[in-house]
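seq:
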Amino acid sequence: MPDYVTFTRNVFLPVTNVCRNRCRYCGFRREPSHPEANLMTVKEIEHILKQGTRFGCTEALFTFGEKPEEHKIFREWIGNIGYSSIIDYLVDLCELSIVCGLLPHSNPGVMDFHDIKRLKPLNASMGLMLETTANLPAHEGCAGKLLSERIETIKNAGKLKIPFTTGLLIGIGENMDDRVQSLNLIKKLHLQYRHIQEVIIQPFSPKPGTKMAGFPEPPHQEVVDTVTAARSILPDDVTIQVPPNLTRFEELIGCGASDLGGISPYTIDWINPDAGWPQIPELTGKLGRIQLRERLPIYPRYVHAGWYDPGLSDLIEQYTDGDGFRDGNRY
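struct:
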């Protein structure tokens, strides 16, 4: 068992739910013509950022559909507020987040080197789920789920020395051999660039109205086996994360998981809106004697190594203790 388990306190900002991909399991995506399609305004985002600081958060998690400007209607939306792409908008939102006192962590989907380089100075860390190396019906017709595209994005983040989150989505049609192959690929990328700070093992959760609504969730034992495999395959300096609102996380700690990811005291999990976040008293109760420690979106070893832009120094120094964790927050 680990001596402690970590988490970060964040706000979840779903900037838009318009996406070029059409993953069969996704309940978040909307067509631009759908009545629930949205593009958050600066005013809406600023309100959430300010609430986040009041609730003691350190992270602003920016997520949205990939390359939504490939849709004509969305291009009109983003153009009406003065931008040509979602990345252009994200740059300004990250700057706003820093002004409000929160460290950005962005998940924009696949990107080219130029866009990642633009975002690097404004992000404490970034992420892209590998999901799987397997070619699956769940991803059919999704340009952003081409393995080569996702590998290139993760590589470019490594070249730019960006602390990075990736992970596996399990139970979408792949098998254990596919998961092992995926984990070995992540290992290879990390050994080359040393930038993978955490790997999420996330079980598929069926969503009403999707093409995989009737697809079964992976059995708990498959999650156990995948976490166990991840810990045996990945280098020791790569943390295994499990989402506490989607797993029996307390049982996975003994298999090698040691992080619970972002937990928000203010916003919901917009990707899994029916799965509420457990809050700190519930987490500590289930962890028993294992200490719960709060971290930033950038892991302590990357804080010590200085893998962040000088523009983030004030916030990182304000929030961290001598060990690189959140100052004064142990539970």
